[in-house]
Amino acid sequence: MVVALRKPPDPALWLSAHAGEDIHEMDGDDFEDLLAVAFQLRGNVVELTEHFDRGADIVVASGRERWSVQAKRRDQWVDRSAIDQAIAGMSAYGCTAARVVTNAVFDPDAIAYARTRDVTLWDQKDLANLLTDTGVGEASRSKAPTCPRCHVPMRYKEKHGAFWGCPNYRTTGCRETARYHHLNLNVAGDRRTPEAEPTRRRLFELFRR
Ligand SMILES: [Zn+2]
Fold first, then answer.
1. What angle separates helix 81-92 from helix 108-117, to the nearest 10 degrees?
2. Which of 55, 132, 152, 192 could covalently link to 88 via disulfide, CB atoms 3.0 to 4.6 Å apart?
3. pLDDT band for position 181 (50/70/90)?
4. 177 Cα: distance to centroid of ligand 1 (angstroms)
5. 125: CA distance to ligand 1 center in Å?
6. How far is the CA of 109 from the centre of ligand 1 (A)?
7. Per-domain residue ranges for the chain?
């Protein structure tokens, strides 16, 4: 089987062109390139698929493994269709495993479905670890937005969606909500400092309350 694959971008050139960019604001192509750069710096062999792809955006080789990676730059929950796409890509590109990587989070149905299909899901916390481990990006916890009506800090909710909601919802019924990202993700500035373990530990602490 012959498939057309594109070469991934050169990491140094790509990073200097995109230094400091907000990853949540990227278009889908830039987000694919971001992942291609990060996986290369992680030591993997990376190929990008043709644009009208057959389910995989990126093919990543690591030892004997070959993963089909579906990249989802999203503002909302990622649903199970992404998992079907990753599986389709796995067979189209002769891969041994499938993975979906997003800047956002997966809905509960997608998480359960991925388990039954043996697809690995990387949400924004996993992405943050990949980016900081490789020096490609920086992550920090978002500051809680203020409710425009009640002027109190909003709380991050993940049970029935992923969003910031007003803490007065139960008492006054205030239904104000704000954009859901609870993690800021940016491409690293010009000085790249790949430091693997300390960063990972720091991030892990960041995610515990
Ligand atoms: Zn409110």
1. 30
2. 55
3. confident
4. 8
5. 28
6. 29
7. 11-136+192-208
For the full predicted model, state whether its pTM sits above 0.70. yes
CATH number of this structure's domain 11-136+192-208, picked from the four choices 3.30.379.10, 1.10.3660.10, 3.40.1350.10, 3.40.50.720: 3.40.1350.10
Higher-pLDDT residue of 51 and 85 is 85
Say how many C-beta atoms besides its own lie within 10 A of residue 34's C-beta: 28
Q: What share of the chain is helix, strand, coil (3-state, %, to 5)?
A: 35, 25, 40
Q: What is the pLDDT of residue 48?
A: 86
Distance, CA 173 to ligand 1 centroid (Å)? Answer: 8
Alpha helix segments (H runs only) across the chain: 11-18, 28-41, 81-92, 108-117, 124-134, 196-207
- The residues, ordered by sequence, that sit 6+ positions from 19 with a Cβ below 8 Å of its Cβ are 187, 188, 189, 190
Sheet of strand 58-62: strand arrangement: 5-6, 45-49, 58-62, 65-72, 97-102, 120-122
Q: Do residues 68 and 55 touch, judged by C-beta distance below 8 A?
A: yes
For position 182, what pLDDT does the model report? 81
Ligand 1 geometric centre to CA of 182 (Å): 18
Which tens digit of pLDDT belongs to each residue from 4-44? 577 899 999 999 999 999 999 999 999 999 999 999 999 99
Percentage of the chain surpassing pLDDT 90?
62
